[in-house]
Amino acid sequence: MRAAVQTGLIVALAVTTVSPVVFAQGGSSSGVETTTDSGIAQSEKSIKAANRKLAKNVRTAMARAKGIDMTQLFVYAKGGVVTLSGSVPKSDQVDRAGEVAKRVPGVSSVDNRLSVYAIER
Questions:
Q1: Distance (Å, whole) CA 90 – CA 97
Q2: The CA-based dihedral angle spanning residues 33, 39, 45, 51, taken in that order and rounded to the nearest 10 degrees
Q3: CB-side neighbour CA atoms (13 Å) of 116
Q4: Could you give the CA distance from residue 108 to residue 115 in angstroms, rounded to a whole number?
Q5: What angle do helix axes 44-64 and 91-102 make, rounded to 10 degrees?
Q6: Which residues pair with 77 in a beta bridge?
Q7: Which of the listed residues 13, 29, 102, 120 has the most CB atoms within 10 Å of its CB?
Q8: How far, CA to CA in Å, does 77 sit from each of 5, 58, 117?
Q9: Which CATH number fits domain 43-121: 3.30.1340.30, 3.40.47.40, 3.30.470.20, 3.40.50.720?
Q10: For the chain, what are the domain ranges?
């Protein structure tokens, strides 16, 4: 019995001292990598490109829509969330811009921060 206890202690001691746990960090110093549902790793560069493309698609849709003055309207996209900022001359254009942006494929939500400016005469 004494030999079994000594053997158990020796095995326990060997396991705790011989196999230290190591947590490795990725060697990528250029940026963060994320994994999508499909299991494909996307680099930071491709994520930025997708955000720029979505913002451009929203701007294009607004330019094609009637009744939206785009001269002081800015579009920012990040991960499917589109932020509209700037100002438009009429209050109905604020709502219209939000509606147009929501209909663009790839947009998950819209943060509409547009304001109305008065036209000086």
A1: 11
A2: -110
A3: 9
A4: 22
A5: 130
A6: 82
A7: 102
A8: 64, 9, 24
A9: 3.30.1340.30
A10: 43-121
* pLDDT tens, position by position, 26-73: 444 444 455 555 445 568 899 999 999 999 999 999 999 988 999 999
Q: What is the DSSP letter of 38?
A: T
Give the Cα separation of 85 and 98 in Å (integer): 11
Higher pLDDT pick, 74 / 27 = 74
Distance, CA of 99 to CA of 108 (rounded, Å) = 12
Q: State residue 117 phi and psi, 5-degree precision.
A: -110, 150
pLDDT at position 121, please? 53
